[in-house]
Amino acid sequence: MKKKQVFRLKNAKYFGEVNKKGLPHGEGKCVYNNGKVYIGFWKNGKKDGKGTLTWPSGHKCVGSFKNDMCHGEGTFYYDDDDKYIGQWKNGKRHGRGTYTWHQGHKYVGEWKNHCRHGLGTYFDAKEKSTYVGQWKNHKRWGKGTLTTSESSITGIFKDLTVEGKGTMKLGGMFTYEGEFKNIVPHGKGVMTYPDGKIVKGQFKNGEFVK
User: Fold this and answer.
1) Are 18 and 35 in contact (CB under 8 A)?
2) Which of 72, 141, 169, 179 stands 20 to 30 A from 7 (CA)?
3) Is 202's pLDDT higher than 70?
4) Contacts 24+ apart (CB under 8 A), 75-80
5) Which residues have C-beta within 8 Å of that of residue 197, sequence separation ≥ 6?
6) In whole angstroms, what is the distance from residue 69 CA to residue 160 CA?
7) Would you state the pLDDT for residue 180?
8) pLDDT for position 171
9) Measuring CA to CA, how many Å separate 43 from each of 17, 21, 31, 48, 62?
10) CA distances from 60 to 70, 76, 182 (A)
11) Spatial separation of the C-alpha atoms in residues 90 and 151, rounded to whole Å
12) Are 80 and 59 in contact (CB under 8 A)?
């Protein structure tokens, strides 16, 4: 292996170690014509190992690479000040990771193909709410609990709704256990009030009917 040689590639200029075929291999720096810069390790002409890739827009990935893509553990800094710290697979967020939005929102949990998928916790800085539970393709999907400053609801989530059996607690007003539709009591259920009063029967769109 040769050391610290300068090569003109098709769309870039490379300074570093190469293999016998003259391909980047080992440690080196590559400056692309489009403004991207990669500093780190290579294998047979591709980014492979620890490195840092910077985009002219301000994006930056610091971590492990494989076959020219973020792969393994890494931190991605977005140009809008969002940040992701965690696992990658073939250039996508995949595995365990934490994404922090510049507005203050935060998700900690599992990812699949760039999407929140599996078990995770999401804090909404604007609504001051926290959801802990299952996700599917970026949506709340499955068993979970949504808690706000005034209430909490536990049940089966389908994106922004709760369907089927669950429990709702609304401040000091009441506790409801039963069936839900569109995130409100709907179907058979029991509503218990702080004074001990119990209402049991059928609910429709959040209201007791019989």
Assistant:
1) no
2) 72
3) yes
4) 79/55
5) none
6) 34
7) 96
8) 83
9) 10, 12, 17, 5, 17
10) 11, 6, 40
11) 40
12) no
Written as six digits, the tokens of 131 are: 């959801």
Both structure tokens of 50: 């620890």
Q: What is the DSSP string of the chain?
A: -EEEEEEE-SSEEEEEEE-TTS-EEEEEEEEETTS-EEEEEEETTEEEEEEEEE-TTS-EEEEEEETTEEEEEEEEE-TTS-EEEEEEETTEEEEEEEEE-TTS-EEEEEEETTEEEEEEEEEETTTTEEEEEEEETTEEEEEEEEE-SSEEEEEEEETTEEEEEEEEEETTTEEEEEEEETTEEEEEEEEE-TTS-EEEEEEETTEE--
Q: Are 2 and 17 in contact (CB under 8 A)?
A: yes
d(CA 178, CA 185): 7
Determine contact, residues 133/118, Cβ cutoff 8 Å.
no
At residue 3 the predicted structure's pLDDT band, cuts being 50, 70 and 90, is low
Q: What tokens does 181 get?
A: 């539709």
Q: Which amino acid would we find at residue 5? A: Q
